Amino acid sequence: MRKLPASYPIALLIAVFALLPFAVLVELAADGGPWFDSHNIQVLINTLLLMVLTGVGAVLIGVPLAVLLAFVNVPFKRFWLVLFSAPLALPSYLGAFTMYFSFGQGGELETLFGVSFPALGGLTGAALVMSLYTYPFVLMTTRSALLSVDTSMINAARTLGLPVMTCLWRLVLPRVVNSIAAGALLAVLYALSDFGTPAIMGFDTFTRVIFVEYNAFGLSQAAMLSLQLMVLVGLVLFLEARVKAHKERPGKPLSIWLSKTTVSAVLVLFLPVILLSIVLPLGIFVVWLLREGVSGFDLSFAWNSAYASMLAAIAAVVLALPVAYAALAGRAGRIMERVTFLGFGVPGIVMGTALVYLGLKLPFLYQSLGLLVLAYVLRFLPLAVGTVRATAESLDGSLTKAAKVLGASNFEAFWRVSVPLTTRGIVAGAALVFLEAMRELPATLMLGPTGFETLATYLWRVYEAGYFGRAAVPGLLLILLSGLGLIIMLSGERHADIVGDKEK
């Protein structure tokens, strides 16, 4: 009889624990009102409109950029790829915050340049911001697919006189449509779960209305809306899982040579994307810093953010180890791993609603730092599991077997051989959890202990109070943290490329 892997019991316990928020929401929603009244239907329509417009906007920006950065002779292509991917690393509420206070009569742009721009808000403002910060999903999935396209048919069509643009439209894009759809669904999922952007733009989606109900002590109504939101999240995740990229044997890559003038014109055409998503937030925060200084900011806000995020990062990697090794041990372990991944699909506002109710049931947890750290761990555990598992998969299993032959117990072989060899994945996973927890807004607003202010919550407080100039320091620090996250992601990509080259 095959012995049960030692990691299974612990991984099973963690997987069951990951289902806790769903069980809490179901119990809490039982006391809620009707599921489909006129207000709920309007919120659903608003949410669907934002999802659709975000997906369309992300495709309209991401697909042309993917073609440009995959096929065209762009100078410094790596630099442009990093630059156009950068908005993905920033929390969208930073962009929404600066755009809200920059546009419109009396906005910062009018103050600085003397030119009045139309105000941004509602569905238009929310869809614009979400498109600007989610198009990199489409860019990356589409570019990856384009680079694997066999271009022999395209070259033949060009030889027969078919224009390049016609070849791209009729021969290339239909072959990568699944990859485009996958990126668009990721953008839609982001828009569906985001709280900060709709809230700042004053547009009633599920996330904003859930927070309003929570503040009005309508916890049962908030739970019911959370479950409705989770139905939409589940639908998007189901569609995303069903969309599979078409794989084909790569051939000679397609190269499109354009004049320097044409390439420059195309880049200038997409320059507003970078100006609005990267330059505007950074520039406005710097202007506010020069104007207001560090007035109202306390270093304890940064320390609180770092302390809570550090605790979450440590807890996440400790829990990730048994889950990752269970996933490598067999099918049952892979199922447990997928259960823990559910937390990453739960919007922060939903996680906050569930754990607030849990805190009310268990008073020793209510408004405690432990409850906030628990929310971070449940949400971002998949980040740690993914990096640890990816590192563990590349290990030579003979080393562990040799340790056991020499008399080491299973635990000794794991602790003294496997864990040190997965240090890179552990550090990377902890860093990703730390950075995401530092930027988390809704769960921190709902679960943070009384008087426990973080960078994200302080930014929200000054927005509510209208003292937008005081957002400079937390805004710049969050941008810096986002940059660090982007560096970690890119370094992981380079490592994967190096490993792939060695295997070839």
Automatic annotation (TrEMBL):
The protein's name in its UniProt record: Iron(III) transport system permease protein
For biological process, the GO terms are: transmembrane transport
Species annotation: Marisediminitalea aggregata
Bilayer topology annotation: Multi-pass membrane protein
- Tell me which UniProt keywords the record has, alphabetically: Cell inner membrane, Cell membrane, Membrane, Transmembrane, Transmembrane helix, Transport
**Transmembrane residue ranges:** 45-72, 79-103, 115-135, 172-192, 222-241, 262-290, 310-328, 340-360, 366-392, 472-492
Q: Where, subcellularly, is it found? A: Cell inner membrane; Cell membrane
Q: Which residues form a coiled coil?
A: none
SUPFAM superfamilies named in the record: MetI-like (SSF161098)
Supply the InterPro entries for this chain: MetI-like, MetI-like_sf
Chief subcellular location equals membrane
Q: Which Gene3D superfamilies match?
A: MetI-like
The similarity annotation says:
Belongs to the binding-protein-dependent transport system permease family.
GO cellular component term, pick one: plasma membrane
Which residue numbers delimit the ABC transmembrane type-1 domain?
44-238, 302-489
